[in-house]
Write a structure and sequence with these properties.
The complex is a heterodimer. Chain A has helices at about 20-30, 85-90, 100-115, 120-125, 135-150, and strands spanning about 1-5, 10-15, 45-50, 55, 70, 165. A five-stranded mixed sheet of chain A has the order 2-1-5-3-4, sandwiched between helices. Chain A folds into two domains: about 1-75, Beta-grasp domain (Ubiquitin-like (UB roll), Roll); about 85-150, [2Fe-2S]-binding domain (DNA polymerase, domain 1), CATH 1.10.150.120. Chain A contains five helices and six strands. Chain A is globular, with a radius of gyration of 16 Å. Chain B is an alpha+beta fold. Chain B folds into three domains: about 5-220, Aldehyde Oxidoreductase, domain 4, CATH 3.30.365.10; about 225-300 and about 360-435, Aldehyde oxidase/xanthine dehydrogenase, molybdopterin binding domain (Aldehyde Oxidoreductase, domain 4, 2-Layer Sandwich), CATH 3.30.365.10; about 305-350 and about 445-730, 2-Layer Sandwich (Aldehyde Oxidoreductase, domain 4), CATH 3.30.365. Chain B is built from 17 helices and 27 strands. In chain B, a hairpin with a 2-residue loop joins strand 5 and strand 6 (about 165-170). The longest helix of chain B is centred in the first third of the chain and has 23 residues, at about 130-150. Chain B is globular, with a radius of gyration of 27 Å. Chain B starts with a helix and ends in a 15-residue tail after the last helix. Classes of the chains: A alpha+beta, B alpha+beta. At the A-B interface, helix 1, helix 2, helix 3, helix 4 and helix 5 of A face helix 6, helix 16 and strand 27 of B.
Chain lengths: ~170, ~725
C-alpha cells in the first residue's frame, strides 16, 4: 500500500514496497506515457520529476516516494501540447518512433526550469537519455527553441534542421 | 499543430479497431475517434460525419476530411506520412484534412490482398509501393470527378479539382469530395493502365518538407504503443529462453513461485523457453527471476568469441570461396603489381536494441486468435499466429501498433509473436501481454552478422589501381532465413554493395581486374537484418581500404576515388555533392581532420564527409558530418534529413561502441551499461544534402548509415596515420 501524489492527484496503490515507481505508474495508476526501456537507470525513458527533481523511475522503489512528494509525469506536462517544450518538439518534428520522447521531454523540461537559456554544453550535460532513432540533433535544436518560446520569442529558429535540395 | 491531422492520426495510433470493439487506451488527446471500416453498401457507422470508402486506399467523410489507408508499418521512419503525401498528391484532396488508418493483416487477407504486401523493411516501405498507392489516389480522384460530371451532366474533361473542391468553370458550379463520395463509390474504377500519374515537377504535397502526421500524441504520453495496451481482464507474462542458442528447457519448478504476489502460474512456452504469468508484469518478472529453471544448454555451450574469430580467419585463408565477381585476373594483376597493399578488417555481431523491448499481447479462444503487437510485417505475424495456434489464417487477426523502433528486428522473424500466442493458448479466453526484459531482448536477438574481410590491391608504376581482391568470411543471414539463396555458400547477399548489377547495391568503382568472394562461415548465434545490413560492414571494408590504397598511391582520397568512378556517374555525383558541402580540401581548424566515403545500398547512393579530432589520449570527437544522398525521388526532404541524422547516430553507436561478444555459447552484453549507445553530447552537427534525380525510387531509412563508419575511420586515419581495421573503436588504442 502506498500513497502517491501524481500530477496533483492523490492515489492509493496496492503494491509491494520494492515495486519500482515506473511499474506502479504504468500498471497500478494506468499512466503509460512513462516508458520502460532498460530497468537499470541507463536510458532515461522512464524519467519523471519528483519534487521538481529529474528521476529515473525504473530504479526508484515506490516505498522511497513519500506521500507528500509531488510526482510529475509526461501526462502532467500538458495534455494539449501547450508546454514550450512540446511546442518546440512539434515545430521541429523531433520524434521519430517517439518511444523515448516522454523521457526526453521530461529531461528538457527539468533543464529549462533550472537553466532557462542553456548553452550547447549545458544541453550536452543535462540530456543523457538514449534515443535509438537518433533524434539528438533535433532534440538539441528543440531545447533551444523551447527556451525561445518560453521567453516569449516566437520567431522561427535559425538553426532548424532542414535538408538542402540541390 | 494541425487539428485535423492530429485527430485523424490519433485514430490510427490509438485505435486498432477489432470486431470485438476494443478502443485502445486513452482517447483524451483527440476526441477518441475510431473509424473502423465502412464498406460500400453496408450500414453507416454511428458517427457525426458519414464515412465512405471510395476505394481501398481512400475514405472520404462528409465533413470533407479524408482518411488514407496504409498497409506498411510505422516505426519512426515517417513511412506513413510519406505514403499519405503520395496518395494525396494524386487524389488532389486538402492535405490539412488528411489522416491515416492502418489496415490489418486479416482485412488484407479477406480482401484478396488489395493493399499488397505489408512488410516494412529493406527501406522498401515507400519505394516499392509508390506506384500502386499513387494509382489508388488517382483512381479515387477519377471516380470523384466522374461523379461530379454525372451529377452536372457535363464532360468530365471540363471539370477541375483543387484541395477537394470540384469546379465546373463554364457553369460556375462547385461541389466537394465530401458531397460526391457516395456517388463516386458506386462508379466502376478506371483501368489501372489508363491512369497517368503526375510528373514530380508538378507535385504540390509530395516532394515537400511537410510535417509528420503522427507527432502530436508522442509529445504528451497519450500514444499507445503495444507495450502500453490494456485490455479488460488482461494478465501479464515475463519470459526467459535458454541463454545458449540451440539449448532447451530441461525443467522448472513452478510451485516455488505460486505463492508470490499476483502469480497465476509458470508455463512452458516452447522447447526452449518458460514464462511466469501474473496480474502485473512486474510481479511476473520478479517471480520469473525467482523461478528455479534447469537448462540443457546443448552442443554450443562452450562457444566463445575467440573460437568464432578463428573460424572466420580460417574462412579468409581457405580456398573454395564463392566468387560473386571475377573480372580479368585480379590475383595475377596484384601479384605483378609495382605496389601491393593488403589488410584484414573485422566487424562484430550487433544487437538492434529497439527502445521498446519485444512484446506482444495475445487473446486465444477456441476459434479465434488476436494479437496486438509492434511488427514490421503484419502478414508474417499472422502466419506465426496461425502456425502457433493451429487455427487457419482466416481465424487469426493482427493489430499493429506503431513500433518503438524496428531496425529489422521485428520483420520476418516472429519469435515473440509465437511466444505470446503459446502463452495465451494456455489461458484461453484471457488476453495475456508478454513483455521481454531488456536483458532478454538483448540476449535473444537476431544479430547483425559477424564478418571479416581480407582485401588486396595492386598499383602500377603510375599508381593506378590494376587489381582488387575482396574476400569476406562470415555468417550468412540467408543460411537461416532463406537457405536456397545460400546453397553451397553461394550467398550474394553477404556481398551487398560489391555487386556488378545496377539498381540496388552496385559497386561504384571500375577496376580492370576484380575478384569478389564470400566464404560462408556460420555460427550458432542467430543473425538477421539490421538497419543497413550488409552494406554497413562492406562499406567499412571497401571504403577504409580505399583510403589505405590512396595513401599508398600518394593521392588524395577523393581524387583517387574519382579516377575510378567515371563509369558510375550517379555514385560520383553524390560523392561530389558530399565533398562540396562538406568542404573537402578546404582549410580546417588545427587538430581537425576529414574523411570521406561513398557506397550504394537499398537502391540509393550515399556519401559522407566526417570531420574529427583525436586528442592525446586517443579519444575521438566527431565534430561535423555532411551526408549526401540520391534516393531517386525525394518524397519529404525534411524527413529524409531526419533519417540521415538518425542514421548518423545509429552508425556512430556501432562505430564507437557496438559489439556483442560470445562466451559459453551466449551473448555477454545484457543492457545499455555494456551495450552502449551514442548520447546527445557525442552527436555531431549533421548537414544533409538531398540530390534526387527523379529517375528511380530508392530507399531512405537505411542507405546512408553505411558511409558513417568509414568516413569517420578515414578521418581518424588522416589524423593518426594508422588505419583502424577492427570495430568498435572503444577496443582500439589510437595513439
Amino acid at each position: 500500500m502506498a500513497k502517491l501524489n501524481i500530477n496533483g492527484k492523490a492515489h492509493d496503490v496496492q503494491v509491494e514496497a520494492d515495486t519500482p515507481l515506473l511499474w506502479t505508474l504504468r500498471e497500478q495508476v494506468g499512466l503509460t506515457g512513462t516508458k520502460y526501456g532498460c530497468g537499470v537507470a541507463q536510458c532515461g525513458a522512464c524519467s519523471v520529476h519528483i519534487n521538481g527533481q529529474l528521476t529515473r523511475s525504473c530504479s526508484m522503489p515506490v516505498s522511497a516516494v513519500k506521500p507528500g512528494d509531488k510526482v510529475l509525469t509526461i501526462e502532467g506536462i500538458s495534455r494539449n501540447n501547450s508546454h514550450p517544450v512540446q511546442q518546440a518538439w512539434a515545430e521541429l518534428d523531433v520524434p521519430q518512433c517517439g518511444y523515448c520522447q516522454s523521457g526526453q521531454i521530461m529531461a528538457a523540461v527539468a533543464l529549462l526550469k533550472k537553466t532557462p537559456k542553456p548553452t550547447d554544453q549545458q544541453i550536452d550535460e543535462a540530456m543523457t537519455n538514449i534515443c535509438r532513432c537518433g533524434t539528438y540533433q533535433r532534440i538539441r535544436a528543440g531545447v533551444h527553441r523551447a527556451a525561445e518560446i518560453a521567453s516569449g520569442r516566437t520567431a522561427k529558429p535559425a538553426a532548424k534542421p532542414t535538408a538542402k535540395s540541390a | 499543430m494541425k487539428k485535423t491531422n492530429a485527430s485523424a492520426t490519433s485514430a490510427t495510433a490509438l485505435a486498432n479497431p477489432s470486431r470485438r470493439g476494443f478502443i485502445v487506451g486513452s482517447a483524451a488527446a483527440a476526441g477518441g475517434l475510431s473509424l473502423g471500416f465502412h464498406l460500400p453498401g453496408s450500414a453507416a457507422p454511428a458517427a457525426k460525419a458519414s464515412v465512405t470508402e471510395v476505394n481501398a486506399w481512400v475514405v472520404v467523410k462528409s465533413d470533407e476530411s479524408v482518411v488514407i489507408r496504409v498497409a506498411r508499418s510505422e516505426m519512426g521512419q515517417g513511412t506513413h506520412t510519406g505514403l499519405a503525401q503520395l496518395v494525396t498528391e494524386e487524389l488532389e484532396c486538402d492535405w490539412k484534412r488528411v489522416g491515416i488508418e492502418q489496415v490489418t493483416a486479416g482485412q488484407n487477407l479477406a480482401r484478396n490482398r488489395v493493399w499488397g504486401e505489408m512488410s516494412t523493411g529493406g527501406s522498401r516501405g515507400i519505394r516499392i509501393s509508390n506506384t500502386y498507392v499513387r494509382q489508388g489516389g488517382a483512381a479515387a480522384r477519377i471516380m470523384l470527378l466522374q461523379a461530379a460530371a454525372n451529377e452536372w451532366n457535363v464532360p468530365v474533361g471540363e471539370i477541375s479539382v483543387d484541395k477537394g473542391v470540384v469546379t465546373h468553370a463554364a457553369s460556375k458550379r462547385k461541389t466537394t469530395y465530401g458531397k460526391l463520395a457516395v456517388a463516386a463509390s458506386k462508379i466502376t474504377p478506371p483501368d489501372v493502365k489508363s491512369i497517368k500519374l503526375k510528373s514530380p515537377q508538378d507535385w504540390k504535397v509530395a516532394g515537400k518538407p511537410v510535417k509528420r502526421l503522427d507527432t502530436a500524441n508522442k509529445l504528451n504520453g497519450s500514444k499507445v504503443y503495444s507495450i502500453d495496451l490494456k485490455l479488460p481482464g488482461m494478465l501479464y507474462a515475463a519470459v526467459k529462453a535458454c541463454p545458449v542458442y540451440g539449448g532447451t528447457l530441461k525443467s522448472f519448478d513452478g510451485d516455488k513461485v505460486l505463492n508470490l504476489p499476483g502469480v497465476k502460474r509458470a508455463v512452458q512456452v516452447s522447447p526452449s523457453a518458460v514464462a511466469v504469468v501474473a496480474d502485473t508484469w512486474w510481479r511476473a518478472k520478479k517471480a520469473l527471476d525467482a523461478l528455479p529453471i534447469e537448462w540443457d544448454e546443448g552442443p554450443n555451450a562452450s562457444v566463445s568469441s575467440a573460437m568464432i574469430d578463428a573460424r572466420l580467419k580460417e574462412g579468409l585463408a581457405a580456398s573454395g570461396a564463392y566468387a560473386n565477381r571475377n573480372e580479368g585476373d585480379a590475383l595475377k594483376a596484384i601479384e605483378g603489381a609495382v605496389k601491393k597493399i593488403e589488410a584484414v578488417y573485422s566487424t562484430p555481431f550487433l544487437a538492434h536494441a529497439t527502445m521498446e523491448p519485444s512484446n506482444a499481447t495475445a487473446l486465444v479462444t477456441a476459434n479465434k486468435v488476436e494479437v496486438w503487437l509492434p511488427t514490421q510485417n503484419a502478414e508474417a505475424s499472422l502466419a506465426a499466429a496461425s502456425e502457433e495456434s493451429g487455427l487457419p489464417l482466416s481465424q487469426c487477426e493482427i493489430y499493429k501498433h506503431d513500433l518503438g523502433g524496428g531496425f529489422g528486428r521485428r520483420g520476418g522473424d516472429q519469435d515473440y509473436t509465437r511466444q505470446a500466442v503459446a502463452i495465451a493458448k494456455q489461458f484461453a479466453g484471457t488476453p495475456v501481454k508478454m513483455i521481454w526484459s531488456r536483458e532478454e531482448d538483448m540476449q535473444h536477438d537476431f544479430y547483425r552478422p559477424i564478418s571479416q574481410c581480407k582485401l588486396s590491391a595492386g598499383l602500377d608504376a603510375n599508381n593506378k589501381l590494376v587489381g582488387l581482391h575482396i574476400k569476406v568470411s562470415g555468417q550468412s543471414i540467408n543460411a537461416r532465413v532463406n537457405p536456397a539463396a545460400a546453397k553451397g555458400g553461394n550467398d550474394d547477399r553477404q556481398l551487398q554493395g560489391f555487386w556488378s548489377a545496377a539498381g540496388d547495391a552496385q559497386f561504384g568503382y571500375a577496376v580492370p581486374n576484380l575478384l569478389v568472394e564470400y566464404a560462408m562461415r556460420n555460427t550458432h548465434v542467430p543473425v538477421g537484418p539490421w538497419r543497413g545490413v550488409n552494406t554497413n560492414q562492406n562499406a567499412v571494408y571497401s571504403e577504409c581500404f580505399m583510403d589505405e590504397v590512396a595513401k599508398a598511391a600518394g593521392t588524395d582520397p577523393l581524387e583517387f576515388r574519382r579516377a575510378l568512378m567515371a563509369k558510375y556517374p550517379k555514385h560520383l555525383a553524390v560523392l561530389n555533392a558530399a565533398a562540396e558541402k562538406g568542404d573537402w580540401g578546404k582549410p580546417l581548424q588545427p587538430g581537425r581532420f576529414r574523411g570521406i566515403a561513398q557506397f550504394m545500398g537499398y537502391a540509393s547512393y550515399s556519401a559522407a564527409v566526417a570531420e574529427v579530432s583525436v586528442n592525446a589520449k586517443g579519444e575521438v570527437k566527431v565534430h561535423r558530418m555532411t551526408l549526401a544522398t540520391n534516393c531517386g525521388h525525394a518524397v519529404n526532404p525534411q524527413q529524409i534529413a531526419a533519417q540521415v541524422e538518425g542514421g548518423v547516430a545509429y552508425g556512430l553507436s556501432a562505430t564507437f561502441y557496438g559489439e556483442c561478444t560470445v562466451d559459453k555459447g551466449r551473448v555477454v552484453q545484457s543492457n545499455f551499461h555494456d551495450y552502449q549507445i551514442l548520447k546527445l553530447a557525442e552527436m555531431p552537427h549533421v548537414d544533409t544534402v538531398v540530390v534526387p534525380t527523379f529517375d528511380f525510387w530508392g530507399g531512405v531509412g537505411e542507405p546512408t548509415i553505411c558511409v558513417v563508419a568509414p568516413s569517420v575511420l578515414n578521418a581518424i586515419f588522416a589524423a593518426t596515420g594508422k588505419p583502424v581495421r577492427t570495430l568498435p573503436l572503444k577496443n582500439q588504442k589510437l595513439v
